[in-house]
Every structure is written in C-alpha cells, then in structure tokens.
Amino acid sequence: MPPTQPWSPSPETASWDYSGSGSGALEEELELCASWELPYARAFVPTLYLAAFAVGLLGNGLVLRLLARRRAPRRLADTFVLHLAAADLGLVLTLPLWATAAAWGGRWPFGRALCKLSGFSLAASRCAGALLLAGLASDRYLAVARPLGARPLRSPQCARALCWGGWGAALLVGLPALVSRDLQPLLEGPGSQCGERPSDAFQALGLVLLLLTCALPLCATFFCYCRLARRLRRPPRLGRVPTAPLRIICAVEGAFMGSWLPFSVLRVVLHLARLGAVPLPCRLLQALRWGLTIATCLAFCHSCANPLIYLLLDRSFRVRAWRLAHGLSSASSRSGDPSAEVRARPKAGDERKRRT
C-alpha cells in the first residue's frame, strides 16, 4: 500500500490484485507494473493529517461546546450542525493513526483492533456527514419554499429524529469495515499494513454502499439547492428571505462536495477495477494511486473545514466564540492570581454608597 492511501491496499501484490481474479497471468502483469510513490508524500501527507487533527479537534470541540450548552432556543439548522461536528470529530480522532502509518511507509503499528475501528470510524463519519448535509439541505428548502405547509415537519423532534436516523444508517454502513479491514504483510520490508481484503463480495458491497451513502445524498442535496436557487429568484411573497444563513450552509455543502466527491469517484473506479469491470493499464493504475493519495488528503482535511467556515461567515458564531475565549481567559487569570477576586469584589463602603 502506498503510505498515503489508508483506504486501499496495494493493487500490485499477488493476493491484493485489483481485479479480484487472482490469475497467474494477471499477477505477472502486475509485477511488471511498478509502483512509484508520490514525490514527498511521506513528508507532506503526515504534516497535513496532523495539522487537520489539531485544527479539527479545536474547531469541532468549540462547535460542540457552544451549541451543546446554548441557553437560547436552538435553531433547527444548529441541530444538524451539532451532529456534523460530532461526525467530523470521529474522523479527526483517527488522523494521528493514519499520519503515523503514512510516515512509516504504510506500516501499521497499532494492531488489528485499531485497524478495524479506524476503518469503521472513517466509513461511519463519511456516511453520517453526507446524510446530515442532505437533511440540512432539505430543511433549508422547506423553510424557504414551503414555510407554512412544512411547519409540522420542521419541528425540533423531527430534526433530532432525522439526525439520529442518519447516525443509525452510518453505523450500519461502517459494520462491513469491521469485517473487511485487516492486517496484511507488507510487500517490501517487515511489518503489516491496514487494508481491505481482496474479495469480490467485499468490493461489490463497498461499491453499492458508496453509491447509496455518498452519491444519493449528494444528488438529493444538489437537487434541493437547485430548487432553492430557483425559488429565491422569484419575488418574495412572505417577506424577504435572509441570505446570510443560506450562504453559510451553501459553503458547508460546497466544502463537503469538493472534498469528498473526488475521493468517491476514484473509489468507484478502484472498486470497478478490482472487480474486472474496468481494465487499467500501468499508467492509469499509477495515476489512480496518485489520485487517491491526493483525494484522500483532501477528504481527510475536510474534517477541520466547517469550523473555519463558521468563523469566517457566521458573525454570531464569532461573537460566541470570542465570549467563550474571553471567559476562559478571565477564569484562568483569576485562578492564577488570588488577589484578582479580592480586587474585583466591591468594598463594603462602596456598596453602601451605591445603595444610598
């Protein structure tokens, strides 16, 4: 496995060939097809993963802190945003593992259990993100296009039920990773790699799940926003629709599509190639490996994108984040300086003067 492809094993090995047939002629052909690692991949891929881990951990943790403890009534969009942050955090927590494997040339030093759990977390987080964004797009469309008729559907109970239903589907989608993921010996050098078993059944199942949990939600999201854009071009009948929340949500949806769509397309090609439906010559196979390396980096780095979008486009989020940071700094200064509480406490004489 190239060190920057945590989702796919090395296609050039005899037991991990991309067609799944395991024929001797194909093994000889794959042995002649040399694999070149993407230049400087062992340096920039771990750096990107660790940077995304640091930013994503702080950013998504901030989103969870602000929305989970919000005293004011929560908007329906905030319910989806809260669950999106939890999905991104599940992916973020696996990034140090993949960064270490990438730096060590694909070697997985964390054991079989973490290999399976990491694959499960990645599949479930990706599916949950796609389904939650589809639910968010549907909610925005109903809020703008059918503000009166969709009120029963746009209740907090329905939003929570939709989010938890998305999580249930995501956990089911992640279950095959617990079976198909395993440790396999590296082709060169000691150690093992974390990858998928070269079974036609698992390749077909992975292709179907990828289409159901990525292609369909993205198509539903695109359909909702096309209808929404068409609706916004009409003259408003019930007052002007605020565009600032729509810009934020469109930015979140666009970031997800731009990050995960290249990865999903290349994964579909990889599954079809392993099933023998798409024959790949050496040059195209090498291009697929390099493309998956770059697309995987882009998809993994998306886990830190949403908090940055909120900070840039959402003024209320910036204000709440600043208040939280200011409150924490004030609390830390008071705990570090015992006299600060005494100075902040009004004197008895001053208190009497204010009362009189």
Main attributes of the structure:
mainly alpha, 71% helix, 356 residues, two-stranded antiparallel ribbon, single chain
Mean pLDDT: 77
Biggest pleated sheet: 2 strands, antiparallel
Distance between the termini: 79 Å
The tally of strands reads 2
Task: Give your account of this protein's structure.
Helix 11 packs across helix 12. The chain has a two-stranded antiparallel sheet. The protein is built from 13 helices and two strands; from the N terminus they run H-H-H-H-H-H-E-E-H-H-H-H-H-H-H. The chain is globular. The N terminus and C terminus are likely disordered. The N and C termini lie far apart (79 Å). The protein is 71% helix and 3% strand. It is an all-alpha fold and 356 residues long.
Structure at a glance:
This protein has 356 residues and is mostly helical.
Give the topology.
Layout: H1 24-32, H2 41-68, H3 76-92, H4 95-103, H5 111-145, H6 156-180, E1 181-185, E2 192-196, H7 200-232, H8 244-274, H9 282-301, H10 305-313, H11 315-336, H12 338-344, H13 348-355
Antiparallel strand pairs: 1-2
